[in-house]
Amino acid sequence: MSVNEKLRSQATDRLFEGVLQLKTVEECYEFFQDICTVSELKALTQRLEVAEMLQAGESYEEIVEQTGASTATISRVKRSLVYGADGYVLVLNRLKEKDAGETP
C-alpha cells in the first residue's frame, strides 16, 4: 500500500531522515525524549505492543489487560494492520527477524 500523500511534506521527510540517522536504542531514547512528551512516547509504544499482540492472535480482553490500551485504540491499530500502509507489518516482521537472529 502506498503512503497517504496528505502526510508527505519536506518537513516530514526531514524528520524521517533524522530518525534514520539514529544508530542505537540509546540514541533513540535521547531523540524521542526530546521530540515527544512522555505521554506521546508511551502512546506510540503501546500501539506497537497492541499491534504485536493482535498479530499474535491475542483477544481484545487480553490486550486491554496486558497493555491498558482502550478498545478504541486496539480497534484503530487493528484497522491499520488490516487496511493501513503495512508499516506495522514491516516493523514487526523486521523485529521478528532480528529476534530470531539473536543468540541468548
Mean pLDDT: 95
> Low-confidence segments, ≥5 residues, pLDDT <50?
none
Task: Quote the beta fraction.
Answer: under 5%
Task: Tally the helices.
Answer: 6
Number of strands: 0
Class from helix and strand fractions: mainly alpha
* CATH class type of the largest domain: Mainly Alpha
Largest sheet: none
Task: Provide the CATH architecture of the largest domain.
Answer: Orthogonal Bundle
- CA-atom Rg in angstroms: 15 Å
Morphology call: globular
Which fold name corresponds to the CATH topology of the largest domain? Trp Operon Repressor, Chain A
**Number of structurally distinct domains:** 2
Cα distance spanning the termini: 35 Å
N-to-C SSE string, H for helix and E for strand: HHHHHH
Helix content: over 70%
Fourth CATH level, the homologous superfamily of the largest domain: TrpR-like
Give an account of the 3D structure:
The structure is a single chain. With 104 residues, the chain is mostly helical. It folds into 2 domains: 7-36; 39-104, TrpR-like (Trp Operon Repressor, Chain A, Orthogonal Bundle), CATH 1.10.1270.10. Helix content is 73%, strand content 0%. The chain contains 6 helices and no strands. It has helices spanning 10-20, 25-35, 38-55, 60-67, 71-83, 87-101. Helix 3 packs across helix 5 (71-83). The longest helix is centred in the middle third of the chain and has 18 residues, at 38-55. It starts with 9 loop residues before the first helix and ends with a helix. 8% of the residues are buried.
